[in-house]
Amino acid sequence: MSIVEDYVRRTPTSGKLHERGRKVFPGGYTRSTILVDYPYPTYIQRALGCRVWDVDGNEYIDYINNYGPLLLGHNNPAVVEAVKQQLETIWSGAVTETEVKLAEKVKELYPCAERMLFCPTGSEACMKAVRTYRAISGKEKIAMFKGAYHGSSDSLSFQEGTPTDFLSKVVLLPYDEIEGVERLIELYKDELAAVLLEPTMGRMGHKPAHPDFYKALREITRKKGIPLVIDEIVDGFRLAPGGAQQRFGIQADMTMLGKVLGGGFPLAAFASSEEVMSIWGIQESTSLDIVGPRIANTGTFNDTKISIAAGLATIEQLTPDLYKHLEKIGDEMRGGMKKIFSGLRIKAQVTGISSMFSIFFTGKPIVNSDSMVHVNKLVYRCFAMSLLNKGVIIGKGGNPSFCSAAMTEEDIKQTLKAAEETLSEMLPLIKEIAPTLID
């Protein structure tokens, strides 16, 4: 029986639901990262801890965790209770103490976060961060690293449909190559409003740069007087309580947070010094005569209390022991996968840091975004679907995978066993479709 035939046999109800979905969504679903499943996505009915169950009753260990937000796993009891309490008081539409509490927690953990604003998504946080520095500096160009992802706004997206004029205002820097970065920043220093950094590049499997790179970048941007904006939508709270900045010993001029910040609910933030963020506040107030902000943080769901309560309940559980556990299981997963590939003589790269990992079927090291050209995506899809048939969900379409605090070492062992069985069974297929991947 083929991989696809086995999947179809196990998931008939998902197949029927997908047929209904195709009649209302382009491609059958409303989120692109799910559409990489073939011939249809797995429809999930319930979730708890590190496991999910589909509509046909199949059980899976979940390494997607909604691509990062569920650091504590599904339905964490303290988060559920906080959401219940908030639902019984107020959902949105007023100023409450809840958002102040969460902002105070963020300020404790991120030194640059003297002032911040919330918004629903990471894309919006990145867009507003860029807008901030363009408004302050009067400059239009932004520098970002080739292959980085800073959301889907036109200002930072390279997808089809983005006006070419917008793309002309973006300078692409080489990741983890400080000499090339210094040369380009020197070339465009008088035109740059800010430099954006995704500390561990998601499209490279969250592989961190060399430790000296971060400090050198900080020194160059400070010397040239260009703000360094660090996008911690994914890395924030995951690599450490203070995110990548704490882990790598650097401090941004502005940081963006998301995913874990909302505890599984939609929430993001952008934060900087009091001086920088003042552009978003009331400029002047005399009696009842108010001069509004230079830029208004408009948005109906900027302060949804459910998300804020969930985020607060999540951050309150981020203890040293929790991070030790996440590091341990992340190391075990990456180390275990490398050992399996080596034993089976399959060429693959396992990248990641802390509780994140990615698998790339290629014999060439992952060093920058150009490395992705050599990755065999078809073999990965076969591997991911084969694992799915064995009860393990990993990142779709080459996207990163995420461990959660709800996982145990036994879950990791079970996953590695399934991975070894899957790859052993796939050896004839790999030899047929990608013989260069076998030593």
Describe the structure.
By secondary structure, this protein is α/β, with parallel strands linked by helices. It has 2 domains: about 5-75 and about 320-435, Aspartate Aminotransferase, domain 1, CATH 3.90.1150; about 75-315, Type I PLP-dependent aspartate aminotransferase-like (Major domain) (Aspartate Aminotransferase, domain 2). About 40% of the residues lie in helices and about 15% in strands. It is built from 14 helices and 18 strands. It has helices at about 5-10, 10-20, 75-85, 95-110, 120-135, 165, 180-190, 210-225, 245-250, 275, 305-315, 320-345, 375-390, 410-435, and strands at about 45-50, 50-55, 60, 115-120, 140-145, 170-175, 190-195, 200, 205-210, 230, 255, 270, 285, 290, 350, 355-360, 390-395, 400. The strands form 5 sheets. A 7-stranded mixed β-sheet has the order 4-12-11-10-7-5-6, with helices on both faces. Strands 1-2-3-17 form a 4-stranded mixed β-sheet. A 3-stranded antiparallel β-sheet has the order 15-16-18, with helices on one face. The chain is globular, with a radius of gyration of 22 Å. The two termini are about 25 Å apart. The mean pLDDT is about 95.
With strands numbered from the N-terminus, the spatial order across the biggest sheet is: 4-12-11-10-7-5-6
Radius of gyration (Å)? 22 Å
Strand content: 15-25%
Shape: globular
Q: Residue ranges: pLDDT <50 for 5 or more in a row?
A: none
- The CATH topology of the largest domain turns out to be Aspartate Aminotransferase, domain 2
Number of extended strands: 18
CATH superfamily of the largest domain: Type I PLP-dependent aspartate aminotransferase-like (Major domain)
CATH architecture of the largest domain: 3-Layer(aba) Sandwich
* Number of helices, counting only DSSP H or I runs of 4 residues or more: 14
Major sheet size, sense and barrel closure: 7 strands, mixed
| Number of structural domains | 2
Q: Roughly what percent helix?
A: 25-40%
Structural class: alpha/beta
Q: What is the distance, rounded to the nearest whole angstrom, between the alpha carbons of the first and last residues?
A: 27 Å
CATH class of the largest domain: Alpha Beta
Mean pLDDT: 94
